[in-house]
Amino acid sequence: MHHASVTISRDKKLFKKTVETELRVSLFPEEGESDNNLLSVARLLFAMLKAGGIDSLIQFESRQSSAQLTNLRGRPPESFTGKAGPAAGEEELLHISGKVVPLAETPQPPDLKQLAKNKNGDTFSFNVSSRFSTFSESGNIIHTAKKALAGPLAEIPAASSEDFLFLLPLWPQKLRFGVEVYERKFFGLSLGSAPKIVRRMYLEATNSSISLFASDDNVSGTSVLPFAESRELELVLAAFDDSSMAPGLLSSIQSRLAADTAANIQFEHTN
After folding, report:
1. pTM of the predicted model, to two decimals?
2. What is the distance, to the nearest Å, from the Cα of residue 250 to the centroid of all Cα atoms in its chain?
């Protein structure tokens, strides 16, 4: 189980019926190096996959090596700190990496603590990135998505993120998911209209901490979460519950949004 720190910021724009909303959630595991902590990324990943919260959002076909995305891209390099993030000119939609669990002749549960200390063990990674392609005739922005696999997954080029439900014995230790969504906006007679990023969601998860950021310029009410129409953020928050990391977090956030009219809401969630 994780301790969750939640911040919600709301800014109601003049002459508009919409509200700009930001949600930040930070989760920290229980004290001690337990198997529950070491498996937190894997449990979160599987809960998201079961709910369809990744592939459906990035519209990535599992049997294609590349796909076109309309008015949607991954997380840009400048939003990362340190060495994490995609190469210049690309955006990161998805990153999953971890270790390959060696199989013993006699089946037995792996010793995760010992495996975590082994710096020389085999690793794997699965990455999906996006790159700007073109503007369509109707003014939409087209990005091209591509995936890259390393380690044992490189032998399975048709693998998708859903295959992690079945590709054992892999132990996911890092999960990053980022998406930015465009909409066409009118900026006045002199400037005309142009695409603008209106929704963002960034998720970063390791076995020691999890952070989630989501923003939406077009929330149609002060009690509504970002990505309300497509429900991807709701699916991610529900995955915290389904994976037993933060039971009741989604309902707690929703009840706070509905009951508190303040522009900024901060609270700690424990269960």
Report:
1. 0.87
2. 16
